[in-house]
């Protein structure tokens, strides 16, 4: 399976961002973190694109997957491991 590009948008003092990063690390998934704390324009662009107003926000190969809860939900349904070929 081709390696997937994972991008995680985060901000400072964000417990959900930390939880998400720990989860990805535990799963052995490499990701690029983009912290938007000092990038209000980028944050606005992101929100306009996703219509999602909390952080973290996760993209896998340009596909928007949502935030921490969404990732955990995918994992509980077995879809996360399938997406990354981990099974
Ligand atoms: N359900 C979301 C909750 C994320 C969340 O509440 N993030 C906080 C920071 S840890 C946030 O963006 N707060 C700003 C806001 O709610 O406007 C998830 O699981 O990702």
Molecular structure report:
With 87 residues, this protein is α+β, with helices and mostly antiparallel strands. The chain has a single domain, classed as Glutaredoxin (3-Layer(aba) Sandwich). The protein contains 4 helices and 4 strands. It has helices at 15-26, 40-50, 68-76, 79-83, and strands spanning 6-10, 32-35, 57-60, 63-66. Strands 2-1-3-4 form a 4-stranded mixed β-sheet. The model has no long low-confidence stretch (mean pLDDT 97). Glutathione is lined by residues 14-17, 53-56, 67-69.
What are the SSEs and their pairings?
Blueprint: E1 6-10, H1 15-26, E2 32-35, H2 40-50, E3 57-60, E4 63-66, H3 68-76, H4 79-83
Parallel strand pairs: 1-2
Antiparallel strand pairs: 1-3, 3-4
Continuous helix count: 4
Q: Name the structural class.
A: alpha+beta
CATH fold node name? Glutaredoxin
What ligands does this structure carry?
A: glutathione
Q: Strand tally, please?
A: 4
How many separate domains make up the residues? 1
Q: What's the shape?
A: globular
Distance between the termini: 12 Å
Give the key terms.
43% helix; four-stranded mixed β-sheet; 87 residues; Glutaredoxin; 4 helices; binds glutathione; alpha+beta; 4 strands
In short:
The protein has 87 residues and is an alpha+beta fold.
């Amino acid at each position: 399976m081709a390696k997937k590009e994972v991008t995680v948008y985060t901000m400072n003092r964000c417990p959900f961002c930390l939880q998400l990063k720990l989860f990805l690390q535990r799963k052995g998934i490499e990701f690029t973190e983009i912290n938007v704390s000092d990038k209000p324009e980028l944050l606005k662009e992101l929100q306009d694109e996703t219509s999602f107003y909390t952080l973290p926000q996760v993209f896998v190969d340009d596909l928007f997957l949502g935030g921490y809860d969404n990732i955990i939900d995918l994992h509980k349904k077995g879809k996360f491991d399938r997406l990354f070929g981990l099974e």
